[in-house]
Each structure stands twice: as C-alpha cells, then as structure tokens.
Amino acid sequence: MIPLRDNLPSKHFPWVNWLLIAANFLVFFFEISLGSVQLDAFIMNFGLVPTSILANPAGNWWAIFTSMFMHGGWTHLIFNMLALFIFGDNIEDRFGHFRYLAFYLSGGLAAAILHILANAGSAMPTIGASGAIAAVLGAYLILFPRAKVLTFFPIFFFIPVVQVPAPLYLVFWFFSQLLNGTAQITSHAIQQGGTAWWAHIGGFVFGALIAILFYHRRTQPTATVWDHPEIITRDDPYNR
User: Fold this and answer.
1) Number of Cα atoms under 13 Å in the Cβ half of residue 80
2) Residue 222 belongs to a domain with what CATH number?
3) What pLDDT score was predicted for residue 65?
4) d(CA 130, CA 170)
5) How many domains does the chain have?
6) Residue 145 is part of which domain span?
7) CA separation (Å) from 30 to 22, 24, 78, 83, 211?
8) In 3D, which of 107, 111, 83, 133 has the Cα closest to residue 181?
9) Is 238 contained in some domain?
C-alpha cells in the first residue's frame, strides 16, 4: 500500500516538517552532485556504520544524526518524504514545533541504537530518514486512531485508490517490518546495505511509547469531509 494523504488537515502551518523535508532534499542534491568516488567516501564518513560507532562512540556519534538526512536514490528519498509529508504535520500539530523537532531527532536516535545492536558486526553504512519517520508513524497510530489514509493498493495490473483506517495501514506496516527483522536475526544475516528493519521497529516503538506516555488524549480527531461524504463535490478527484 502506498499512502497518498490522510483526512486530517493540520491546524497550524507545519514549518518544522517542511524544513525537515527541505533538508533531506538539499542533502540529496548535494549527494548527486558528487562523483562516484566522492559519494562513496561521503556515505562512509557520514552514514551510520555500526562497527565504527561501537569502536569509538565518542568520535562517531554525530553519524547517527547526519545519516538521517542522506538517501540512496530518488525512490528511497521520495517514499520517505511522502510518508513524512502525510503524517508529520499532524504530529507537529499535537506536539508543537520545537518538541516535534526534538521528537523527530530522538526517534532517529532510538532507531539507530536498535539498528546498531541488531547489526553490531556490520561495517556497511546505513542512511535514510526512515527510522525517524517510523517514530512519527508510531505516534500517529496512538494519537489519531480514527484517521483514515487514502492509498494506492496494487493488485496485479490494477492500482485502485482505496481509503483505509490509519491503524490498519500502520499496524500492517509495523508487522511487515517486524517479520522481516525477525527473519534477518534468525537467519544470522548481517545487514548488507539493504533495508534497516530494526531501525524501523525501534523508531516506531519509540514514537508509540512517547505518544502514550506524554501526549495521548482521549478526545477524538475533528470530523473531516471524509466523514461526511454527502458534502463532497463533483470536483473532488476521489469522488469516482
């Protein structure tokens, strides 16, 4: 399932979320401006390398944060930023701008720690914002249980657009990460530049716990146009 949008417009302009998206794009544009040799060196120096962190935590801790703003290609970048665009604005609304920034970076830190522990022997660099974004998804699951997500749902040659409850989408996503992460551990595989499953798991659990402990409210989200389909106009591209 590929998310397109949720049904909860933000009440305030999510400028921190937009700055995070812009920072990721700017770093990626810098990456593609480098030659292949320079790019490899850049990723090794600023990516998250578990063996380097464990060998010298004091000297390499900053790579945990620089790696959050690096991506391995257009697909990697666009899918991450799409998820951040869809879900991050509502979390920023609930947390406030500066607390949201602190939460995002802390979620990336939690994701990195679990990734390092699960891949302690790996000398391969890991890059991407997905660990921090997973924290956003975990918080969204707790804080907006009645939200809905419009998604592409590919079925063979058909790609219908369907509306699904956000908890269904997020729980499905989390368990897919958990299944793959468990398979990685039980097969004794060392992460070799593929998906950092345990970073996703660590970020998601961190985000959910923070939402439960500090920000959970019993009030439900404000009703939106999706809750009242009778007021959708013919100009709505999804009213088909």
Assistant:
1) 28
2) 1.20.1540.10
3) 96
4) 14
5) 1
6) 2-231
7) 12, 10, 16, 22, 34
8) 111
9) no
